[in-house]
Structures are given as C-alpha cells and as structure tokens.
Write a structure and sequence with these properties.
Layout (H helix, E strand, L loop, with lengths): L2 H5 E4 L2 E3 L2 E9 L8 H5 L9 E8 L10 H6 L12 E3 L2 E8 L3 E11 L2 E13 L1 H4 L2 E6 L13 H10 L4 E3 L7 H8 L9 E3 L1 E4 L8 E4 L12 H14 L9 H16 L3 E4 L3 E4 L2 E4 L1 H10 L4 E5 L8 H15 L6 E3 L15 E7 L4 H9 L3 E5 L7 E3 L2 H13 L1 H19 L5 H8 L2 H9 L2
Parallel strand pairs: 2-8, 9-10, 10-11, 14-17, 17-18
Antiparallel strand pairs: 1-3, 3-6, 4-7, 5-6, 7-8, 9-19, 12-13, 13-14, 15-16, 19-20, 20-21
Helix pairs in contact: 5-6, 5-13, 7-8, 13-14, 13-15
The chain binds zinc ion (2 copies).
Length: 451
C-alpha cells in the first residue's frame, strides 16, 4: 500500500469528469498537523511549516476549457501547477475542476526552516459518465477444487479467494458442476460479501477444446450423459455450417457452438479457455479452429490471461498478441483473466491471474453483460513483479490507477473476511457473527472513494 494512503485519508479518489469537485486530505495520525493559523502566519513566523500544493493532470489540461475563466477568477494560474487550498478543521481542502477522463496528481509539500519535504503524491481519477457509474469488481472465472484435480474443498477456495481481495468467483471443476454448488452451500446462512457463482469446465466427448461455463443455472457436462441427443443436435449444427475454412474440423467447431449456446440458455457466460495452451507438443486448440472461433465468436468471452506455469508464460504472451491483432482487424473481443488454479496453497496460479470487471453490480447478469460490453480487463500479477492489466487501453489505464490507489485498501479489508470464512469452515461458531459485523465494509470503502 502506498504510504500516502496509509498516513492520510484523501477523498474522493474517483470523480466525474468535467466538473468541479472538493477534495479533502485529512491526516490520520500525528505525522503532520495542518494548522490554519500556521498557514496564515507564512512569512511572519519562519519556524512554523507552511504547505504547498501542486496540481498536475497527467494527460492534458486545456486552457481552452469552458471553465478556464472561472478557474482564473478562482485564483489559478493555468500555466503553473501551484494551486490555492484551504485548511479546514485540520484538513486540506481543494476545489478543483477535473477535466476529461484521466488521472490527476495532487503533490503536497511542507516547507519549514529545515527545507522542503514531500508529504504526499495524492492521486485521483476523473471518469466519463459510463465508467463513473460502474464499480470495479475483482474476480476469478476459473478455478479447480479437489472434486476434480485441485487440492482443496470448494468452500476453502471461496474463502481463500475472498482473502486475496476477490469480489466474485466460481469453482469450475473439470466435468463437474456440483462442486460449484458445494462452494455456495458452505456459506448457507452466512453473511458474506464474496459472490460465489456456479460453474464448471466443459469437456465435450471427443473434443480437446476447453470451455468454462460461468454462472449457468444447469450443468452442460451433465447433458453429455445423453450422448445420442448431444450428437444429433451437433449434427444439426454441422448441417447448417456451410463451407468451413481448411483445417477446421466441423464436429469440433459445432460442438463449441452447441456448448456456448447451452451456457447462454442457462443464463451463464461462456468462456473460450487457454487457446495457446502448449500441451502434448503443440498448442491446443490453436491453428485453424482458434482462428475460426475468433472470427465467428460463438463464445461470450476469451480467456485472454490464463493459468500457466512460469515456464508456460509464452502462452499468455501469444494470447495477448493475438487479441491485439484481432482488435486491430476491428473485432470486438470480450475478455476475462482466470487463475485456472488447481490449489490455492500450491504457490502458483492462485493470485497470479484474475479479472477486473467494471459493472453496475456484482450480480451475475451485470458481470456477464459488462464483460460482453467490453468493460473488463485481465490481470497478470506474477510473483515479485508489478501486476499488469491487459485489455482495452482506456480500461488498462484506469485499472493501473485502481491497482495502485484503491485495491490495496480494498484487499486489506478482504483479508480478514477470508480468514473468518475459513474459520467458519473449520467449525468456529463465532465466525458467522463476526462476518455479519464486517458485511458491507468493502462496498462502504468504495462508496467513500467515489464521489
Ligand atoms: Zn482447461
Ligand atoms: Zn481449468
């Protein structure tokens, strides 16, 4: 966490673009005490510190702004970063016009006889209305429990997911939908802020294409039990496909179409998983099938960043490069980032990859619709490296701000909730009541940070 965000409470952090907003910087501890009298005594009592505040919009500031005259009248010099402020009840208050969608720096210094000292580099982000109306939710669309080839119970994975700051998740075991329900049931009657959704990883008969069903009301894998019905319906799809590009297997492609249609029928989000997974000496599926899937997009979202070992990171690099190339061709490609974790205590995958979805709420429909409307980024957060979001430029820029200025505080609150969820699973009868006490804390934090 940035030290400014430990020592001070600076709010709001996210504000509407092209409007004036009052920002308050309040010291939380005794490290500094803003004193109005000292400020007025500038020049008379040299021993008292004074303060200087400089303002920098990181991208642009147009003196042609409609409000330029109002800013000048308020004492601004549009060609100089130093800005006026007031000290009110021990806090610094600034009224500012935040132009356009961009990040803003408020650089606060203390000047005393000892010299100039930086108190903080405070950041804000101004947003256009569509993004301002959305809350960023962290989540994982793809994880495995010991019901398939993972290491822990579905409830354990849900608890650990909250513990690392996720707002939503689903257990998506290979060929099994029931474990995702088990994760929900583990917290029946317990007030938690983690949204646990249903899901599964789908493996159709005779297909090596992996798909994730995120959130559908029923299992797709279970439909394969009636294999003749599945085969007949896929045959129907094949008959309507027309001529396919060379190298595209009609059955494999039609099977994907069938699965993604079924996921949508169940109200879920269909994810095309790890297209550049290198397995058995080749990419799977890759080749002509991946190209055709990207061209026709029967899926709802592409797993842009997937769960790969460190020696397999090439696969994510390829997926990102491919995504950008497809985008350059004018294709809109919804994306998610998933850990594909096979054990939260395994020391890999879990925490390395996740998604940020900008949505009106963390309800299933809002998350799925927002992903489909391209309001998401996929994050790679490898050990000992600075985390990197991938996706639309506008969202990547905003996500970088959130990952530095907002999520560290959000995640700190989640840590305690995740620990209590684990204690509840371990039989601590006081944990549920303690979770009820904490309910709504992360939402309240976000509300405080948003104007
Ligand atoms: Zn898979
Ligand atoms: Zn998987």
């Amino acid at each position: 966490m940035k030290k400014e965000n430990c020592y001070f409470d600076a709010v709001p952090k996210v504000v509407p673009a092209d409007r004036e907003t009052t920002v308050t910087i309040a010291p939380l501890y005794d490290h500094v005490r803003f004193d109005a009298n000292k400020s007025e005594a500038q020049g008379r009592r040299a021993s008292c510190p004074t303060y200087e505040l400089s303002y920098y919009p990181v991208e642009e500031f147009s003196a042609r702004s409609a409000d330029a005259e109002a800013l000048r009248a308020a004492g601004w010099r549009l060609d100089a970063p130093r800005i006026p402020f007031e000290i009110v009840d021990g806090t610094i208050q600034i009224r500012l016009y935040f132009e356009g969608e961009q990040e803003h720096v408020l650089f606060l210094e203390e000047i005393s006889e000892k010299g100039r000292k930086t108190l903080g580099d405070f950041r804000l982000y101004s947003l256009e209305p569509d993004l301002f109306a959305r809350t960023p939710y962290k989540g994982d669309f793809h994880q495995h429990s010991f019901r398939s080839d993972g290491m822990e119970s579905p409830g354990y994975i849900a608890s650990a997911s909250r513990g690392i700051g996720l707002d939503f998740m689903a257990v998506t075991d290979h060929r099994r939908y029931a474990p995702s329900i088990e994760a929900q049931r583990a917290f029946d009657g317990v007030d938690i802020d983690l949204h646990i959704f249903r899901g599964e990883e789908i493996h159709p008969p005779d297909s090596h294409v992996h798909m994730v069903n995120f959130g559908a009301r029923f299992s797709i894998n279970e439909l394969f039990a009636d294999e003749p019905a599945y085969r007949a319906q896929v045959a129907g799809i094949i008959s309507r496909l027309g001529t396919l590009p060379p190298g595209v297997d009609p059955y494999l492609y039609a099977s994907c179409v069938w699965c993604f249609d079924k996921i949508r029928e169940g109200g879920g989000l269909g994810v095309f998983c790890h297209p550049y997974w290198f397995t058995a000496h080749r990419y799977s599926p890759a080749g002509a099938l991946t190209t055709y899937l990207l061209e026709t997009q029967p899926f709802d979202a592409l797993e842009l960043i997937g769960g790969y070992h460190l020696n397999e990171i090439d696969s994510n690099t390829l997926q990102v490069a491919r995504y950008h190339e497809e985008r350059a061709k004018g294709r809109a490609i919804p994306i998610v980032g998933s850990s594909d974790s096979h054990g939260v205590e395994r020391g890999e995958f879990f925490t390395w990859y996740y998604s940020i979805v900008f949505a009106p709420s963390s309800a299933l429909d809002d998350l799925a619709d927002s992903v489909k409307a391209l309001y998401s980024v996929a994050v790679e957060a490898l050990p000992n490296q600075i985390a990197r979001p991938f996706g639309p430029f506008r969202l990547v820029k905003y996500a970088l701000f959130l990952m530095r200025e907002v999520f560290p505080q959000h995640d700190e609150l989640c840590k305690e909730e995740g620990r209590l969820m684990l204690e509840h699973l371990a039989g601590n009868t006081h944990a549920a009541a303690a979770l009820t006490e904490l309910k709504g804390r992360t939402a309240a934090l976000m509300n405080r940070y948003w104007l």
